[in-house]
Amino acid sequence: MKCIPIDSADKLQSLELELNDPTSNNFLMLFMKKVGGINGREFVVRNLRKIFVDSFASKTSWCGQRNNIRISNLKVIKLLQDVTDSIFKLTDKEFEKTASEWFRQSKQRTQRDEKKSSILNTK
Fold it and tell me: How far apart are the C-alpha atoms of 78 and 72, rounded to whole Å?
């Protein structure tokens, strides 16, 4: 999966096209399982961190509000939900809340990382 981590709309589109191939789909599913987590919430968050770069995630939203890229209807998200459900039996609501919160907070993480790097660069 050369598209991961996703840091642009082009890479996202490439991954979505790649997931039409069952081999790529299985590869990503195994990748997600290997990332792991101790519970459903941690599993979702750890995988989102591996799949999406915060700076790109800040340009997305769960429902696509404010001219952001809609994320809830993507194949990669559906696959993550299916894998999570097969391991942890997370409800749809719990998955949606966890994933949408992660995307919502991506702007804060990006700003915090930029602030940290600017402080380190001035030293």
Answer: 8
